[in-house]
Amino acid sequence: MADGLEELFGRAREAKLNKRFGEAQVALRDAAARLRSDPMDLRGVMALRELAETERKLGEREAAREHYEQAVQQLRLHSDALALAHTVRHLGDVHRELGRSDLAEPCYREALELYDAHTEASRLDVANALRSMAVLKEDTGAAAEAAALWKRARELYQATGIQAGVDESTRRLARLTS
Question: How many CA within 13 A on the CB side of residue 25?
């Protein structure tokens, strides 16, 4: 690319692979800034999502929240419902991590509704969204709802062969039902 964006994305990928998240953050901020003027360019959404993910790893949750929100706004202009579902779920995770359950729950509901409406949704993505909602329900004392969500998540983790997800679901279910 003549605009240097491919180089920025490449630097960010390499830095993330080597756990140099500060370097990745700088490259992704630059890429996002260059793409900000054209909300229809999906590379901008990708830059914002990766930037938000990197900021979460750095513990910069407010910055991550802001960039996930910007990515969600841009994705609403596009027809990629599954990318929107994935990004909205991550926004919900950041809200939950910040102690904002009231803002996290609508994000999880939207993500699950989007996944339910699209049969091509990855079972792993659906399981992860169910997991996020189950954690929220558990944290807010809605044990019965959490248990039902953990059961659904465990089934999907089993179907996709994600043993860590099966194990976590089983542990949490045992704790909720004992």
Answer: 16
Q: pLDDT for 37-69, tens place per residue? A: 777 778 888 899 999 999 999 999 999 999 999
Cα–Cα distances (Å) from 87 to 50, 93, 141, in that order, read: 10, 10, 26
Q: What pLDDT does 1 receive?
A: 40
Other Cβ atoms less than 10 A from the Cβ of 29: the count is: 19
CA–CA dist 92, 109 (Å, integer): 9
Residue pair 152/165 in contact (Cβ under 8 Å)? The answer is no
Task: Tell me the two tokens of residue 134.
Answer: 């189950």
Other beta carbons within 10 Å of 16: 19
pLDDT at 2 over 70: no
Cβ neighbours, 10 Å, residue 12: 25
Q: Are 23 and 15 in contact (CB under 8 A)?
A: yes
What predicted TM-score, i.e. pTM, was given to this entire model? 0.88
DSSP 78: S
Residues in Cβ contact with 5 at an 8 Å cutoff, skipping those fewer than 6 apart: 31, 34, 35, 43
